[in-house]
Amino acid sequence: MLPSISTLVLVSLNGCLALAVKDLPAAPSLSFTAGYVVYMTGEPATLRCSVSRTQTVLGYQFHKDGGKVTEGHLTPSQGIYSITSVNKGTAGSYSCTYWTLDAGETVLSRESQAIVLYVIDHLPTPVLSLEPPSSIYISGEPVTLRCVHAKVDSITEYHFFKDGADALREGRSPSDSTYRIRKATGSMEGWYSCLYRSETRGRAIRSMESPRQFFSVTAQPPAPSIALHPEYPVYITEEPVTLSCASPGLATVTGYRFYKDGREVTERSSFSQRNYFISGVTSSTAGTYSCIYWISERGRDVPALPSTLVTVVVIEPLHPPVFFLTPSNGRIEDGDNLILTCSILPNFKKIIMLFTRNGEVIRHDQSLNRTESNVRFSFRVSKGNASHEGNYSCYYIADIHGRMLTSPQSNSQQVTVEARKLLWLMLIGLAASLGLILTVFLVIILCQMLCARKGSKTEKPSSPLNEDGEIAYTALTVSTLTSTRSAPI
């Protein structure tokens, strides 16, 4: 039982007993030398019992929860009580008193104000996690380091360390449990750890430092090259095309991936193939393509920088042109114009129009920046050139984004060259005239022959002699027949 604040003293005065009350020495003050009342299991704790300098102290006595924990005369005069390793059993309310001399007698002082020793377990040791988890990170990737631990009240701050030095966090609250790396770089590579602090009853308690984690950073492999086979600026629907991805380095490539308009199109079963084959292009396969390859480093697939972009433009097959003749039936007279017309529906800026006869090109027209849809030309066909007769058609070659594409052949039409009707009439007239002239000539000759025969019949058998014995002469003309006898000489 601790003494009260005063003591009853029997005093003998003149043979009479008198009762007197005497105050006890002033109470000391008790404190923890560390300045805090909360200790973690295993930590040392020291209590100091302080007395006014005017008092002569013979010894100190410490109490816990109303019981003695020391013997006053044995306690060192400095008034120290040390606990080498606190535990749940050493927690409790502590106080102290001291012994002093008063009128030659040993007197125990009043009891100090009690103080409480709180004992708590150590704060849970945190674990540093890297998100997303990986054995290695690629330059430019965002990474979050998180200090993870069991639930603890009154956490005041977190500390992160890189290679043992404090890693400063700009713009982050001290109570934020994360350390964010927006873009990983090679200079950020190193060993990282963390700890946290919690405040309990005025004491800032520090956790153990987490196990260290190595943050490894690697640069992306160089970009591959991508190529189209065959390489055209445009492709016609259903044409096949192959995209090939070639890595520039000597590192062992573990796979390839192809992307269309930013979305992966490679099937998982074909990751090992450096070629992506399209058996027949369509409007759905048209787009912008790229590729990457990746290598294995520390158990992670590290993708290379993406290749440049190649574009697959798909168009419908060219339509055949519309071909027609003037005249439309293909029959022309010798010397007339035959007009061949080839019409195309699309408006191409550059085309070459070709006209054929019996499958052979007879003319081609090149057009640059043409806005009209028809290409027409004419030439004179003569009967004398029999090759002008035959089957005529046309087709065109169009420049589409730099690729020269040939259209299907147009419909064909037969051309026949006929002699002009006026010529026939002239020939008939000439023949008739010649026939008439020949007839007249024959009639004249016939008449002369007949007249000659008739004259021969009127002559005498012999020339008569005149009286003088001479021969008489007769004159014959075609137009007049007379007989004259000459006068005798």
UniProtKB/TrEMBL annotation:
Transmembrane annotation, as ranges: 422-447
UniProt signal peptide: 1-18
An individual GO BP term: immune response-regulating signaling pathway
Gene3D superfamilies with a match to the protein in the record: Immunoglobulins (2.60.40.10)
Stretches assigned to the Ig-like domain: 28-97, 126-194, 224-291, 321-394
InterPro entries attached to this UniProt entry: Ig-like_dom, Ig-like_dom_sf, Ig-like_fold, Ig-like_Receptors_ImmuneReg, Ig_sub
Keyword list, A-Z: Disulfide bond, Membrane, Signal, Transmembrane, Transmembrane helix
The protein, known as: Fc receptor-like protein 5
Organism for this UniProt entry: Geotrypetes seraphini
